[in-house]
Amino acid sequence: MKAVNHYVVVNKIKETKKSTGLIITEENNDDVRYSKGEVISFGNLVEFVKEGDVVWYDRHAGHGIEFEEKFYFVIKSSDIVLVD
Question: pLDDT averaged over the chain?
């Protein structure tokens, strides 16, 4: 699977472990605007990420896609706000 143009395919990371050891899932985290995901593929017009990077993006961005029995999100590179 290869993204094209300004699109990025991410594997959404569904939970965050805080330094206190507390795990916060999406259901408990409604006031946070951004989601976290690992870059699986990026288009030829995306310059600032590479495969394996962890990115933060607007949680309402993009759409889901199933590929080879796995579920991914396709987002525009402009929806990425941080590269971790």
Answer: 87
